[in-house]
Design a protein that fits this description.
456 residues; alpha+beta; five-stranded mixed β-sheet; 51% helix; elongated
Length: 456
Protein backbone atom coordinates (compact mmCIF):
# COMPACT_ATOMS: atom_id res chain seq x y z
CA UNK A 1 0.00 0.00 0.00
CA UNK A 2 1.35 3.42 -0.94
CA UNK A 3 2.23 5.74 1.92
CA UNK A 4 4.02 9.02 2.54
CA UNK A 5 5.23 10.55 5.81
CA UNK A 6 4.83 14.27 6.36
CA UNK A 7 6.53 16.47 8.97
CA UNK A 8 9.72 15.94 10.92
CA UNK A 9 9.27 16.37 14.67
CA UNK A 10 8.55 13.61 17.15
CA UNK A 11 5.04 13.20 18.49
CA UNK A 12 4.02 15.78 21.10
CA UNK A 13 0.37 14.77 21.49
CA UNK A 14 -1.36 12.65 24.07
CA UNK A 15 -4.97 11.70 24.67
CA UNK A 16 -6.91 11.58 27.92
CA UNK A 17 -10.39 10.19 27.33
CA UNK A 18 -12.07 12.38 24.72
CA UNK A 19 -9.50 15.17 25.02
CA UNK A 20 -6.26 15.69 23.11
CA UNK A 21 -3.37 17.78 24.46
CA UNK A 22 -0.25 19.12 22.81
CA UNK A 23 2.65 18.76 25.25
CA UNK A 24 4.80 21.70 24.21
CA UNK A 25 5.10 23.13 27.70
CA UNK A 26 3.07 26.19 26.75
CA UNK A 27 -0.49 26.60 28.00
CA UNK A 28 -3.21 26.00 25.41
CA UNK A 29 -4.91 29.14 24.06
CA UNK A 30 -7.45 27.53 21.70
CA UNK A 31 -9.87 24.66 22.20
CA UNK A 32 -11.32 22.99 19.11
CA UNK A 33 -14.32 20.69 19.43
CA UNK A 34 -14.84 18.12 16.67
CA UNK A 35 -17.80 15.90 17.43
CA UNK A 36 -17.26 14.40 20.88
CA UNK A 37 -13.50 15.03 20.84
CA UNK A 38 -11.82 18.14 22.27
CA UNK A 39 -8.38 19.37 21.18
CA UNK A 40 -6.46 21.75 23.48
CA UNK A 41 -4.03 23.44 21.12
CA UNK A 42 -2.23 26.66 20.26
CA UNK A 43 -3.35 29.34 17.85
CA UNK A 44 -0.18 30.08 15.94
CA UNK A 45 0.55 26.59 14.42
CA UNK A 46 -3.07 26.36 13.30
CA UNK A 47 -3.63 29.81 11.80
CA UNK A 48 -0.28 29.59 10.00
CA UNK A 49 -1.60 26.58 8.03
CA UNK A 50 -5.38 27.00 7.79
CA UNK A 51 -7.32 29.87 6.24
CA UNK A 52 -10.54 28.79 7.95
CA UNK A 53 -8.99 28.51 11.41
CA UNK A 54 -7.27 31.88 10.94
CA UNK A 55 -10.64 33.46 10.13
CA UNK A 56 -12.46 31.78 13.04
CA UNK A 57 -9.71 32.57 15.55
CA UNK A 58 -9.68 36.23 14.52
CA UNK A 59 -13.47 36.45 14.83
CA UNK A 60 -13.43 34.92 18.31
CA UNK A 61 -10.31 36.64 19.66
CA UNK A 62 -10.82 37.61 23.28
CA UNK A 63 -8.71 40.45 24.69
CA UNK A 64 -8.72 39.18 28.28
CA UNK A 65 -6.52 36.25 27.24
CA UNK A 66 -9.03 33.47 27.95
CA UNK A 67 -9.04 30.35 25.79
CA UNK A 68 -10.76 30.61 22.38
CA UNK A 69 -13.28 27.80 21.76
CA UNK A 70 -14.12 26.71 18.19
CA UNK A 71 -16.63 24.12 17.04
CA UNK A 72 -15.96 22.27 13.75
CA UNK A 73 -19.15 20.26 13.46
CA UNK A 74 -18.89 19.93 9.65
CA UNK A 75 -15.31 18.65 9.65
CA UNK A 76 -14.94 15.97 6.92
CA UNK A 77 -14.04 12.60 8.50
CA UNK A 78 -14.43 14.15 11.94
CA UNK A 79 -11.95 13.96 14.80
CA UNK A 80 -9.90 11.17 13.20
CA UNK A 81 -8.89 13.44 10.33
CA UNK A 82 -8.48 16.53 12.50
CA UNK A 83 -6.07 14.72 14.80
CA UNK A 84 -3.73 14.05 11.86
CA UNK A 85 -4.12 17.60 10.59
CA UNK A 86 -3.32 19.04 14.00
CA UNK A 87 -0.12 16.99 14.07
CA UNK A 88 0.72 18.21 10.56
CA UNK A 89 0.23 21.85 11.64
CA UNK A 90 2.70 21.28 14.47
CA UNK A 91 5.23 19.72 12.10
CA UNK A 92 4.79 16.25 13.62
CA UNK A 93 5.17 13.22 11.35
CA UNK A 94 1.97 11.81 9.93
CA UNK A 95 1.65 8.95 7.48
CA UNK A 96 -0.51 9.49 4.43
CA UNK A 97 -1.92 6.28 2.91
CA UNK A 98 -4.48 5.29 0.31
CA UNK A 99 -6.90 4.73 3.19
CA UNK A 100 -6.67 8.23 4.67
CA UNK A 101 -5.59 10.48 1.80
CA UNK A 102 -9.16 11.16 0.67
CA UNK A 103 -10.33 12.25 4.12
CA UNK A 104 -7.18 14.35 4.58
CA UNK A 105 -7.61 15.99 1.18
CA UNK A 106 -11.26 16.81 1.90
CA UNK A 107 -10.46 18.08 5.39
CA UNK A 108 -7.62 20.21 4.00
CA UNK A 109 -10.03 21.75 1.50
CA UNK A 110 -12.55 22.45 4.26
CA UNK A 111 -9.85 24.10 6.40
CA UNK A 112 -8.44 25.99 3.35
CA UNK A 113 -4.90 24.67 3.79
CA UNK A 114 -3.55 26.28 0.61
CA UNK A 115 -0.09 27.51 -0.32
CA UNK A 116 -1.11 30.95 0.94
CA UNK A 117 -0.62 29.47 4.40
CA UNK A 118 2.77 27.90 4.06
CA UNK A 119 4.72 26.24 1.28
CA UNK A 120 4.09 22.53 0.93
CA UNK A 121 0.75 22.80 2.68
CA UNK A 122 -1.57 19.83 3.02
CA UNK A 123 -3.68 20.36 -0.13
CA UNK A 124 -0.62 20.27 -2.37
CA UNK A 125 0.91 17.28 -0.62
CA UNK A 126 -2.37 15.35 -0.63
CA UNK A 127 -2.84 16.05 -4.35
CA UNK A 128 0.68 14.85 -5.11
CA UNK A 129 0.02 11.64 -3.19
CA UNK A 130 -3.34 11.13 -4.92
CA UNK A 131 -1.47 11.11 -8.24
CA UNK A 132 0.54 8.16 -6.91
CA UNK A 133 -2.62 6.45 -5.69
CA UNK A 134 -4.29 6.76 -9.10
CA UNK A 135 -1.33 4.95 -10.63
CA UNK A 136 -2.17 1.81 -8.65
CA UNK A 137 -5.25 -0.38 -9.08
CA UNK A 138 -5.24 -1.55 -5.44
CA UNK A 139 -4.72 1.92 -3.98
CA UNK A 140 -7.37 3.43 -6.27
CA UNK A 141 -9.89 0.86 -5.03
CA UNK A 142 -9.07 1.63 -1.40
CA UNK A 143 -9.29 5.37 -1.99
CA UNK A 144 -12.65 5.08 -3.75
CA UNK A 145 -14.08 3.00 -0.91
CA UNK A 146 -13.09 5.70 1.60
CA UNK A 147 -14.86 8.35 -0.48
CA UNK A 148 -18.12 7.01 0.94
CA UNK A 149 -17.17 8.48 4.34
CA UNK A 150 -16.74 12.04 3.07
CA UNK A 151 -19.38 12.50 0.39
CA UNK A 152 -20.22 15.10 -0.91
CA UNK A 153 -16.81 16.68 -0.16
CA UNK A 154 -15.02 14.10 -2.31
CA UNK A 155 -17.46 14.81 -5.14
CA UNK A 156 -16.96 18.56 -4.90
CA UNK A 157 -13.21 18.36 -5.39
CA UNK A 158 -13.60 15.63 -8.05
CA UNK A 159 -11.86 12.81 -6.19
CA UNK A 160 -14.67 10.32 -6.89
CA UNK A 161 -14.69 10.78 -10.69
CA UNK A 162 -10.90 10.68 -10.76
CA UNK A 163 -10.86 7.40 -8.83
CA UNK A 164 -13.49 5.90 -11.11
CA UNK A 165 -11.68 7.06 -14.24
CA UNK A 166 -8.44 5.55 -12.95
CA UNK A 167 -10.14 2.22 -12.27
CA UNK A 168 -12.07 2.19 -15.55
CA UNK A 169 -8.90 2.81 -17.53
CA UNK A 170 -7.13 -0.09 -15.81
CA UNK A 171 -10.12 -2.46 -16.04
CA UNK A 172 -10.29 -1.83 -19.79
CA UNK A 173 -6.54 -2.31 -20.27
CA UNK A 174 -4.94 -5.68 -20.99
CA UNK A 175 -3.74 -6.94 -17.57
CA UNK A 176 -1.18 -9.17 -19.27
CA UNK A 177 0.44 -6.11 -20.85
CA UNK A 178 0.32 -3.71 -17.90
CA UNK A 179 1.02 -6.28 -15.16
CA UNK A 180 -2.11 -5.32 -13.24
CA UNK A 181 -2.83 -7.12 -9.95
CA UNK A 182 -5.16 -10.09 -9.82
CA UNK A 183 -7.71 -10.36 -7.01
CA UNK A 184 -6.60 -12.89 -4.42
CA UNK A 185 -3.05 -13.14 -5.76
CA UNK A 186 -0.21 -12.55 -3.30
CA UNK A 187 2.86 -10.48 -4.04
CA UNK A 188 4.95 -13.65 -3.98
CA UNK A 189 2.75 -15.23 -6.60
CA UNK A 190 2.88 -12.18 -8.85
CA UNK A 191 6.69 -11.99 -8.78
CA UNK A 192 8.51 -14.19 -11.27
CA UNK A 193 12.07 -15.47 -11.11
CA UNK A 194 14.06 -14.10 -14.02
CA UNK A 195 16.78 -15.98 -15.90
CA UNK A 196 19.09 -14.56 -18.51
CA UNK A 197 19.83 -16.29 -21.78
CA UNK A 198 21.93 -14.49 -24.43
CA UNK A 199 21.19 -11.24 -22.59
CA UNK A 200 17.43 -11.67 -22.88
CA UNK A 201 15.39 -11.85 -19.70
CA UNK A 202 12.49 -14.25 -19.55
CA UNK A 203 10.15 -15.60 -16.92
CA UNK A 204 11.34 -18.77 -15.23
CA UNK A 205 7.73 -19.86 -14.89
CA UNK A 206 5.69 -18.72 -17.84
CA UNK A 207 2.82 -16.61 -16.41
CA UNK A 208 -0.68 -17.80 -17.12
CA UNK A 209 -2.87 -15.44 -19.17
CA UNK A 210 -5.10 -13.32 -16.95
CA UNK A 211 -8.81 -13.62 -17.66
CA UNK A 212 -11.18 -10.71 -18.22
CA UNK A 213 -12.77 -11.20 -14.80
CA UNK A 214 -9.65 -10.31 -12.78
CA UNK A 215 -11.23 -7.09 -11.46
CA UNK A 216 -14.72 -8.42 -10.57
CA UNK A 217 -14.05 -9.30 -6.94
CA UNK A 218 -12.30 -6.03 -6.08
CA UNK A 219 -15.06 -3.78 -7.41
CA UNK A 220 -17.80 -5.92 -5.85
CA UNK A 221 -16.90 -4.34 -2.49
CA UNK A 222 -18.09 -0.94 -3.75
CA UNK A 223 -21.53 0.29 -2.78
CA UNK A 224 -24.16 0.30 -5.49
CA UNK A 225 -23.93 3.99 -6.56
CA UNK A 226 -20.14 3.81 -6.98
CA UNK A 227 -20.28 0.40 -8.67
CA UNK A 228 -22.91 1.69 -11.11
CA UNK A 229 -20.74 4.68 -12.03
CA UNK A 230 -17.77 2.38 -12.61
CA UNK A 231 -19.82 0.12 -14.89
CA UNK A 232 -21.00 3.13 -16.90
CA UNK A 233 -17.39 4.32 -17.11
CA UNK A 234 -16.01 1.03 -18.45
CA UNK A 235 -18.93 0.85 -20.89
CA UNK A 236 -18.12 4.33 -22.22
CA UNK A 237 -14.51 3.18 -22.70
CA UNK A 238 -15.66 0.38 -24.97
CA UNK A 239 -15.42 -2.65 -22.70
CA UNK A 240 -16.94 -5.79 -24.23
CA UNK A 241 -20.61 -6.16 -23.21
CA UNK A 242 -19.93 -9.81 -22.35
CA UNK A 243 -17.43 -8.71 -19.69
CA UNK A 244 -19.79 -6.06 -18.32
CA UNK A 245 -22.57 -8.63 -18.07
CA UNK A 246 -20.28 -11.06 -16.26
CA UNK A 247 -19.34 -8.40 -13.71
CA UNK A 248 -23.00 -7.59 -13.11
CA UNK A 249 -23.69 -11.28 -12.55
CA UNK A 250 -20.85 -11.46 -10.02
CA UNK A 251 -22.10 -8.36 -8.19
CA UNK A 252 -25.73 -9.52 -8.16
CA UNK A 253 -24.84 -12.94 -6.78
CA UNK A 254 -22.84 -11.30 -4.04
CA UNK A 255 -25.65 -9.18 -2.62
CA UNK A 256 -28.82 -11.07 -3.63
CA UNK A 257 -28.95 -14.26 -1.52
CA UNK A 258 -31.73 -15.75 -3.65
CA UNK A 259 -29.46 -15.58 -6.70
CA UNK A 260 -26.76 -17.60 -4.96
CA UNK A 261 -29.22 -20.26 -3.82
CA UNK A 262 -30.52 -20.73 -7.34
CA UNK A 263 -27.09 -21.23 -8.88
CA UNK A 264 -24.13 -23.55 -8.58
CA UNK A 265 -21.75 -20.60 -8.77
CA UNK A 266 -18.42 -21.82 -7.43
CA UNK A 267 -16.72 -19.46 -4.97
CA UNK A 268 -14.07 -21.93 -3.85
CA UNK A 269 -11.32 -20.38 -5.92
CA UNK A 270 -12.05 -16.93 -4.50
CA UNK A 271 -11.77 -17.87 -0.86
CA UNK A 272 -15.55 -17.62 -0.54
CA UNK A 273 -15.74 -13.81 -0.17
CA UNK A 274 -19.52 -14.12 0.25
CA UNK A 275 -19.13 -15.70 3.68
CA UNK A 276 -18.59 -12.35 5.44
CA UNK A 277 -21.04 -10.24 3.42
CA UNK A 278 -23.94 -8.86 5.43
CA UNK A 279 -27.30 -9.45 3.79
CA UNK A 280 -28.93 -6.20 2.61
CA UNK A 281 -32.51 -5.46 3.57
CA UNK A 282 -35.26 -6.56 1.20
CA UNK A 283 -35.77 -2.95 0.10
CA UNK A 284 -32.06 -2.52 -0.66
CA UNK A 285 -32.04 -5.82 -2.54
CA UNK A 286 -34.96 -4.68 -4.66
CA UNK A 287 -33.25 -1.39 -5.50
CA UNK A 288 -30.03 -3.23 -6.34
CA UNK A 289 -31.81 -5.72 -8.59
CA UNK A 290 -33.66 -3.00 -10.49
CA UNK A 291 -30.40 -1.11 -11.03
CA UNK A 292 -28.65 -4.26 -12.24
CA UNK A 293 -31.41 -4.78 -14.80
CA UNK A 294 -31.00 -1.24 -16.15
CA UNK A 295 -27.23 -1.80 -16.48
CA UNK A 296 -27.48 -5.08 -18.40
CA UNK A 297 -26.10 -4.72 -21.94
CA UNK A 298 -28.83 -4.39 -24.54
CA UNK A 299 -27.06 -6.62 -27.06
CA UNK A 300 -28.92 -9.92 -27.49
CA UNK A 301 -27.11 -13.05 -26.38
CA UNK A 302 -24.63 -11.27 -24.10
CA UNK A 303 -26.42 -12.29 -20.91
CA UNK A 304 -27.50 -15.92 -20.61
CA UNK A 305 -31.21 -16.76 -20.30
CA UNK A 306 -30.31 -18.77 -17.19
CA UNK A 307 -29.13 -15.63 -15.39
CA UNK A 308 -31.96 -13.49 -16.77
CA UNK A 309 -34.56 -15.94 -15.47
CA UNK A 310 -32.71 -16.16 -12.15
CA UNK A 311 -33.03 -12.39 -11.91
CA UNK A 312 -36.68 -12.67 -12.90
CA UNK A 313 -37.43 -15.19 -10.15
CA UNK A 314 -35.69 -12.98 -7.60
CA UNK A 315 -37.51 -9.89 -8.88
CA UNK A 316 -40.85 -11.61 -8.31
CA UNK A 317 -39.97 -12.61 -4.75
CA UNK A 318 -38.73 -9.07 -3.96
CA UNK A 319 -41.81 -7.50 -5.62
CA UNK A 320 -39.76 -5.47 -8.06
CA UNK A 321 -41.49 -2.88 -10.21
CA UNK A 322 -43.74 -4.13 -13.04
CA UNK A 323 -41.48 -2.42 -15.59
CA UNK A 324 -38.44 -4.30 -14.21
CA UNK A 325 -40.23 -7.65 -14.40
CA UNK A 326 -41.52 -6.90 -17.91
CA UNK A 327 -38.00 -5.92 -19.00
CA UNK A 328 -36.60 -9.23 -17.74
CA UNK A 329 -39.39 -11.26 -19.32
CA UNK A 330 -38.68 -9.65 -22.69
CA UNK A 331 -34.91 -10.13 -22.40
CA UNK A 332 -35.33 -13.78 -21.43
CA UNK A 333 -38.06 -14.32 -24.00
CA UNK A 334 -35.84 -13.02 -26.79
CA UNK A 335 -33.37 -15.82 -25.99
CA UNK A 336 -35.84 -18.57 -25.18
CA UNK A 337 -34.25 -20.84 -27.78
CA UNK A 338 -31.11 -20.90 -25.58
CA UNK A 339 -33.01 -21.80 -22.39
CA UNK A 340 -33.45 -25.25 -20.87
CA UNK A 341 -36.50 -26.71 -19.17
CA UNK A 342 -35.37 -26.01 -15.61
CA UNK A 343 -35.14 -22.29 -16.49
CA UNK A 344 -38.86 -22.16 -17.29
CA UNK A 345 -39.93 -23.81 -14.03
CA UNK A 346 -40.46 -20.55 -12.17
CA UNK A 347 -42.29 -21.06 -8.84
CA UNK A 348 -45.54 -19.14 -8.61
CA UNK A 349 -45.17 -16.40 -5.98
CA UNK A 350 -48.29 -14.40 -6.80
CA UNK A 351 -50.82 -13.38 -4.17
CA UNK A 352 -53.44 -15.78 -5.56
CA UNK A 353 -51.33 -18.87 -6.22
CA UNK A 354 -53.22 -21.29 -8.42
CA UNK A 355 -50.54 -23.41 -10.03
CA UNK A 356 -47.19 -24.59 -8.73
CA UNK A 357 -45.31 -22.91 -11.58
CA UNK A 358 -45.95 -19.48 -13.07
CA UNK A 359 -47.73 -20.37 -16.30
CA UNK A 360 -48.56 -16.75 -17.14
CA UNK A 361 -44.89 -15.72 -16.98
CA UNK A 362 -43.89 -18.58 -19.28
CA UNK A 363 -46.67 -17.57 -21.67
CA UNK A 364 -45.49 -13.95 -21.76
CA UNK A 365 -41.90 -14.96 -22.49
CA UNK A 366 -43.09 -17.32 -25.21
CA UNK A 367 -45.32 -14.63 -26.75
CA UNK A 368 -42.38 -12.24 -26.89
CA UNK A 369 -40.17 -14.87 -28.52
CA UNK A 370 -42.83 -15.57 -31.14
CA UNK A 371 -43.29 -11.86 -31.87
CA UNK A 372 -39.57 -11.63 -32.67
CA UNK A 373 -39.26 -14.85 -34.66
CA UNK A 374 -42.58 -15.65 -36.30
CA UNK A 375 -42.22 -13.16 -39.16
CA UNK A 376 -38.86 -14.60 -40.17
CA UNK A 377 -40.21 -18.13 -40.06
CA UNK A 378 -43.32 -17.34 -42.06
CA UNK A 379 -41.34 -15.50 -44.74
CA UNK A 380 -39.92 -18.88 -45.83
CA UNK A 381 -42.72 -21.37 -45.14
CA UNK A 382 -41.33 -24.90 -45.06
CA UNK A 383 -42.45 -27.83 -47.13
CA UNK A 384 -42.63 -31.02 -45.12
CA UNK A 385 -40.89 -33.85 -46.95
CA UNK A 386 -41.25 -36.45 -44.26
CA UNK A 387 -41.72 -36.49 -40.53
CA UNK A 388 -38.95 -34.66 -38.76
CA UNK A 389 -37.49 -32.98 -41.86
CA UNK A 390 -38.09 -29.68 -43.65
CA UNK A 391 -37.46 -28.48 -47.16
CA UNK A 392 -36.57 -24.79 -47.21
CA UNK A 393 -35.80 -22.40 -44.36
CA UNK A 394 -34.03 -24.74 -41.90
CA UNK A 395 -31.92 -21.93 -40.42
CA UNK A 396 -34.86 -19.67 -39.74
CA UNK A 397 -36.87 -22.49 -38.20
CA UNK A 398 -34.14 -23.80 -35.90
CA UNK A 399 -34.91 -21.36 -33.02
CA UNK A 400 -38.63 -22.18 -33.36
CA UNK A 401 -38.06 -25.94 -33.29
CA UNK A 402 -35.84 -25.62 -30.21
CA UNK A 403 -38.49 -23.58 -28.40
CA UNK A 404 -41.19 -26.02 -29.53
CA UNK A 405 -39.28 -28.84 -27.85
CA UNK A 406 -38.80 -26.66 -24.75
CA UNK A 407 -42.50 -25.81 -24.53
CA UNK A 408 -43.55 -29.43 -25.00
CA UNK A 409 -41.26 -30.41 -22.13
CA UNK A 410 -42.71 -27.61 -20.01
CA UNK A 411 -46.27 -28.73 -20.80
CA UNK A 412 -45.43 -32.28 -19.72
CA UNK A 413 -43.95 -30.93 -16.47
CA UNK A 414 -46.98 -28.78 -15.56
CA UNK A 415 -49.66 -31.16 -16.89
CA UNK A 416 -50.05 -33.06 -13.55
CA UNK A 417 -51.06 -29.77 -11.81
CA UNK A 418 -54.80 -30.14 -11.08
CA UNK A 419 -55.15 -26.35 -10.81
CA UNK A 420 -53.97 -25.75 -14.38
CA UNK A 421 -56.96 -24.49 -16.38
CA UNK A 422 -57.59 -26.09 -19.78
CA UNK A 423 -57.62 -22.68 -21.47
CA UNK A 424 -54.08 -21.91 -20.25
CA UNK A 425 -52.79 -25.35 -21.26
CA UNK A 426 -54.35 -25.02 -24.71
CA UNK A 427 -53.11 -21.46 -25.27
CA UNK A 428 -49.55 -22.39 -24.32
CA UNK A 429 -49.56 -25.45 -26.59
CA UNK A 430 -51.10 -23.57 -29.53
CA UNK A 431 -48.64 -20.66 -29.39
CA UNK A 432 -46.12 -22.80 -31.25
CA UNK A 433 -47.23 -23.35 -34.87
CA UNK A 434 -47.67 -26.97 -35.93
CA UNK A 435 -44.95 -26.79 -38.59
CA UNK A 436 -42.37 -25.86 -35.93
CA UNK A 437 -42.69 -29.32 -34.35
CA UNK A 438 -40.71 -31.87 -36.39
CA UNK A 439 -42.13 -34.51 -34.04
CA UNK A 440 -45.46 -34.36 -32.22
CA UNK A 441 -44.60 -36.97 -29.60
CA UNK A 442 -43.77 -34.38 -26.93
CA UNK A 443 -47.00 -32.40 -27.13
CA UNK A 444 -49.11 -35.57 -27.44
CA UNK A 445 -47.50 -36.97 -24.30
CA UNK A 446 -48.23 -33.72 -22.40
CA UNK A 447 -51.85 -33.73 -23.59
CA UNK A 448 -52.27 -37.36 -22.56
CA UNK A 449 -50.97 -36.63 -19.03
CA UNK A 450 -53.17 -33.56 -18.72
CA UNK A 451 -56.34 -35.33 -19.89
CA UNK A 452 -55.84 -38.07 -17.31
CA UNK A 453 -55.45 -35.46 -14.57
CA UNK A 454 -58.56 -33.41 -15.37
CA UNK A 455 -60.65 -36.57 -15.68
CA UNK A 456 -59.87 -37.57 -12.11
Amino acid sequence: MASMKLGSKTDGFHRDGNTWYCTTGLPSDVTIEVGEMTFNLHKFPLLSRSGLLEKLIEELSIEDGSVCVLKLNDMPAGAKAFELIARFCYGIKIEMTSLNVVSLRCAAEYLRMTEDYGEGNLIVQAEAFLDEVFGSWTDSIKALETCEEVLPYAEEIHIVPRCIDSLAMKACADPNVFNLPVAGQTDAQSQRDVILWNGISSSANKPQPISDDWWFQDVSFLNLPLYKRLILAVESRGMKPETISASLIYYAKRYLPLMSRQSSFDHANNGNPWATVSIPSETDQRVLLEEIVTLLPKKKGVTSPEFLIMLLRTAMVLHASPSCIENLEKKAGAQLDQAVLVDLLIPNVGYSVETLYDIDCAQRMLDHFMSLNQDAALSTPPCIVEEGQFLGGPDTLQPLTMVASLVDGFLAEVAPDVNLKPSKFETLAATIPDYARPLDDGVYHAIDVYLKVIQL
